[in-house]
Amino acid sequence: MSVHGFVTSMFATGPRYVYECRDCGATLEAGATVCPYCGPTDVVEFDLQG
Predict the structure, then answer these.
(1) Distance of alpha carbon 28 from its chain centroid, rounded?
(2) Would you give the DSSP letter of residue 35?
(3) Contacts of 20 (CB under 8 A, 6+ apart)
(4) What is the pLDDT of residues 1-50, one digit of tens each?
(5) CA distance 4 to 2
(6) Which contacts (CB < 8 Å, 24+ apart) does range 5-13 have?
(7) How far apart are CA 46 and CA 50, in angstroms?
């Protein structure tokens, strides 16, 4: 995550978690378990405030 993204997330009222594909790096919908771009792969959940 970029510095801008981190600072923005600290003041944002949006989602607390980001879901990302470990294979291609795509940002996914909340709770996703399959990447629509590269298929079944590991999905990681980042806690932006923790």
Answers:
(1) 6
(2) B
(3) 26, 27, 28, 43, 44, 46
(4) 577 667 666 666 666 889 999 999 999 998 888 899 998 878 999 888 76
(5) 5
(6) 6/48, 9/48, 9/49, 10/48, 10/49
(7) 9
